[in-house]
Specification:
79% helix; homohexamer; AhpD-like; 6 helices; 119 residues
Chain lengths: 119, 119, 119, 119, 119, 119
């Protein structure tokens, strides 16, 4: 894994543990529900992850975008499909989405670079 | 068509014409691009309309939600699938999405009621 | 109850039932979690409802604002306290909050008018 | 004045009075500051009102848009200029701005219709 | 003070001075009003700071969250109370709040670590 | 150019090229439309760039703000005018705009420092 991917993954893991060790049932249930949301159902995992990605993109949440980019990639979303998800996010959310799109593509490049390097 | 669906459709049509009769090339091109966005491509129309729906839901735009609910229904999205799109929107966007979810389900009910009444 | 309060309450109740009769576990759990969030805990109900109100106000969700205005009133929030919640919402969220503030005060007036009329 | 313009203007006036009669200094000062913001300065009133309009449009606040459409019109913004403000709002904010653009153009039409009818 | 807290505090202080040395009365008055908002009144400072925190959290403004986390801590908000503020923010604002929650908890940890180290 | 300006400019340029080399017509057309939006028309470039700046500010997009700050400066916006654009953004968008305002002023300072250093 390259630096940006590694740093993102480690901070995310460490803070999730820190949050969940606190005895707050609503927060814990929310985290569990968040995981359950993207499980296979009437819609398959790939479709749901693309839904999560476009929602994160129009709400302009870089960490959420990075997470769903990684999940989408694992679920088999191709680069052409990624760009069609991006195109929906861009047209719905406007030019303010562009900086997040830049970082999304950069993150995807780094994931793929990591995969190549590890391959 | 029942009243809410009819009123929405007519206002939308009338004002789109009003906007496009203005000689503003950027606005016209944006409208054309918006239409192009949901055409069949690497992702099919049904998937793209679901992406448009979830993006509209988390951005809490009732008219956009109504429009994509109607488009999704034409593209063959089932009620179970609709609710999985809604579940992603709800978990990503939080409880502030609920009022829009209520109106989305009401609009879907009215579309289906209209279909039954016309059937 | 006057008309605006009555209409809001009935639509809310009817659509919540409609949504929950759908067999979608994530949506149902989210609704249950939403209710659990405002229960008495380390913070009391009154404080939590004020938190819910200011969050709804800065996110500019009229229905959420109406709901929390009613809940705050039942929890004993005074008019002076309401306006200090509003002042935080207004300064944090800016002048785009003002139209929602107008409707919040109108809703509160109608709740109190209804209380007086029923008294 | 036609109905939509009249209803908007009256509710706005009535609720502003209701809010300002409450003895809350922060809220009152905010309202005063809001008025001061659009006064002639390094930038003229017309430019400032256009800034207020585009900000309201991308934040998708219909009442704020209506208010600044009326103010811009009084400050001499032409229809071509209005559409260039709209084009910036549309491209920056994306297709979710479109429903608000429809209502903005409808409001402008009604203001001009009122002007013609009164002329 | 550790690095993240120190860097945040210094940049904030330096830029506030830079902004206020500019002769713009509206900006200066807004900054004064912002300070006045959280003073003791019908609601106490602790409650108002929690309102400021939850508003900042749902609007996903990391710097605002950091600031109000520090203010809340000075006003005596306990860790259990912090997590109930977070739970309201999380349920109202949805999973897009999670990355900001991570950074809020990290900032709180660093504040407490700094307090321990200094103690 | 100093570091922050340079880093921003290079990442922006590199990723725009990366995005546009992908064969996605909607994304490419959106980028072209974005450029066209700020061309001289019924409103001049300076006014349009100020509109882009205030829209970016209230939507709290740091990269968009940086970009339009640079464009505004090239179009001849003075420091007093900048602060009147900021004042509209601040009052419309509220105190959550302040952290973005700090970074906007810092970016402007760095642009001017760069200009002085290069002069």
């Amino acid at each position: 894994m390259n630096d940006r991917v590694k740093q993102f993954t480690e901070f995310r893991k460490r803070m999730n543990e820190r949050i969940l060790e606190q005895d707050n049932q609503v927060v814990r249930r929310f985290f569990a529900l968040d995981t359950q949301t993207y499980k296979d159902g009437a819609l398959d995992v790939k479709t749901k992850e693309m839904l999560g990605l476009v929602a994160s993109l129009v709400l302009r949440c870089d960490d959420c975008v990075s997470y769903h980019v990684a999940q989408c990639r694992e679920a088999g979303v191709s680069r052409d499909e990624f760009f069609e998800v991006f195109q929906v996010g861009l047209v719905v959310g406007g030019s303010i989405v562009i900086p997040h799109l830049r970082r999304a593509v950069d993150f995807l490049d780094q994931l793929e670079g990591g995969a190549e390097a590890a391959g």
